[in-house]
Design brief:
Blueprint: H1 2-34, H2 46-58, H3 69-81, H4 119-122, E1 133-136, E2 149-151, E3 156-161, E4 164-169, E5 175-180, E6 188-193, E7 199-204, E8 208-213, E9 218-224, E10 230-236, E11 239-244, E12 249-253, E13 260-264, E14 271-276, E15 282-287, E16 292-296, E17 311-313, E18 320-325, E19 332-337, E20 343-348, E21 353-359, E22 364-370, E23 375-380, E24 387-391, E25 396-401, E26 408-413, E27 420-424, E28 428-432, H5 439-460
Antiparallel strand pairs: 1-28, 2-3, 3-4, 4-5, 6-7, 7-8, 8-9, 10-11, 11-12, 12-13, 14-15, 15-16, 16-17, 18-19, 19-20, 20-21, 22-23, 23-24, 24-25, 26-27, 27-28
Length: 461
């Protein structure tokens, strides 16, 4: 009877005792964790061990006695881990670029896991610090506001020296004298080739614009409409735009006798910079009044068209002569200020905003976009008298080129975009071969052009 009594008592109080024991064990585990001891690891039962042994046995790689120990270890590693653990590395670079999930905004760019760049791209190109060629330019007009140099699509470099224009064939090396003004006191102020490279426009100090047939070395026509010297010129198909010291910009339709079709009056002082965009939609002008203006394209019969500027920016604090359109982003315009400003500014024509600005610490006389390496070239006067290559769009300096003893007046890019020509007040012209194309890229580009031409010919048939 006593035994049965104690059995009933134990059955009644057993759950409470078990709960008390469990609570004590939990308190003990938490106290151990707070004291810094190791975590509690539960006891594994025999059923779990049997399952693990079965899985290992089931996935055991088929190995024969002919395999070496290292081969068996490799097979085990591949079966268990999915890869050979002996080849694993900590912080290993490779694989595909990680993609953010949909809707995730992450400003941090993935630096690792990207595909490796080709060797031809990784290799940093060498930019020679000295000119490839140096030519004499006696009697050059040392005037910041003039544009005395232009390179044609046929690799002919036109240079204005006082009242004469000379043509240098940069492929064959020949030099010819194209023209000379009749009056000794007059001088050439600006030059501009047509896109095809057959005709050269010449602006002069006697307020005229001359058009020359280069192949026959003959003046086609002389157009008079300005009241002051013509210091800037730019072509857009058959429309020739000219900027004058009066602040006016004239559009000339060279196909008709009444060539003067439109006048733009946005500047109050000399127009020293003039550039049509590559797609022919916009004309950018810079003046001695520190303004940068963007004008719409002139249609046929331009007298009835809108002559108001789309944008008029006054951020520069000096004369704006340096203007350049980006050839791979047609809505991007670069402008450079004179001695009082010294800044390069990048503009978005679509939005009308200034994207970036850089203080060059020197007068900016010319700007060029170099498409071979997507870079921006600036030439400078006081006080550095140098040429600087900038990475675009970061505007980090790539290299400085020193070869002139006086301010650089103008610059022009060769047709293959590999060489820059600069003319300076020290009466020299320097040819800088700074953008030679990588042989691998050049071969790929030639193959692409050839395939496009073949497709075009087939479509024509």
């Amino acid at each position: 009877m006593l035994d049965r009594y104690w059995l009933r008592v134990s059955l009644v109080f057993a759950p409470a005792a078990m709960r008390l024991r469990a609570s004590r064990s939990n308190v003990s585990a938490s106290q151990h964790c707070e004291m810094g001891d190791d975590r509690f690891i539960p006891v594994r039962n025999s059923k779990q061990m049997n399952v693990a042994r079965f899985l290992l046995t089931k996935n055991q790689p088929s190995c024969t006695n002919t395999y070496s120990l290292s081969e068996r270890q490799k097979a085990w590693s591949i079966k268990l881990n999915g890869y050979n653990i002996n080849n694993a590395r900590i912080l290993q670079f490779g694989g595909r670029t990680l993609n953010d999930p949909a809707g995730c905004q992450n400003n941090l760019k993935v630096k690792c896991g990207q595909t490796r760049m080709p060797a031809s791209v990784q290799k940093a190109r060498y930019v020679s610090p000295v000119p490839d060629r140096i030519l004499d330019a006696p009697e050059v007009q040392n005037d910041f506001y003039l544009n005395l140099l232009d390179w044609s699509s046929h690799s002919v470099l036109a240079v204005a020296l006082h009242n004469c224009v000379y043509l240098l064939d940069t492929t064959k090396g020949g030099i010819i004298s194209l023209m000379k003004l009749e009056c000794e006191e007059d001088y050439v102020c600006s030059l501009s080739w047509t896109k095809e490279g057959s005709y050269l426009a010449v602006g002069t100090s006697d307020c005229k614009v001359q058009l020359w047939d280069v192949e026959h070395q003959k003046r086609v026509r002389s157009m008079a409409s300005h009241t002051a010297r013509v210091g800037s010129l730019s072509w857009n198909d058959h429309i020739l735009s000219s900027g004058s010291r009066s602040g006016h910009i004239h559009h000339h339709d060279v196909r008709v006798a009444e060539h003067h079709v439109c006048t733009l009056t946005g500047h109050s002082q000399e127009v020293c910079g003039l550039q049509w965009s590559p797609d022919g939609r916009y004309l950018a002008s810079g003046g001695n009044d520190n303004l940068v203006c963007v004008w719409p394209r002139v249609q046929d019969g331009g007298l009835g068209n809108r002559t108001q500027a789309i944008h008029k920016w006054s951020d520069h604090q000096g004369a704006v002569k340096a203007l350049a359109w980006c050839p791979w982003q047609h809505n991007i315009l670069a402008s450079g200020g004179g001695t009082s400003d010294r800044h390069i500014r990048i503009w978005n024509v679509n939005s009308g905003s200034c994207i970036s600005s850089l203080d060059t610490q020197s007068q900016v006389s010319a700007l060029l976009f170099a498409p071979n390496y997507k870079e921006l070239v600036s030439t400078h006067g006081c006080a550095d008298n140098n040429v600087v290559i900038w990475k675009y769009p970061s505007l980090t300096k790539v290299v400085e080129l020193h070869g002139h003893d006086d301010r650089v007046l103008n610059a022009s890019l060769s047709p293959d975009c590999s060489t820059i020509a600069t003319i300076s007040g020290d009466e020299t012209i320097c040819l800088w071969k700074s953008f030679e194309v990588d042989p691998v890229k050049k071969h790929q580009r030639e193959r692409t052009v050839q395939s496009l031409n073949t497709s075009f010919l087939r479509s024509m048939r």
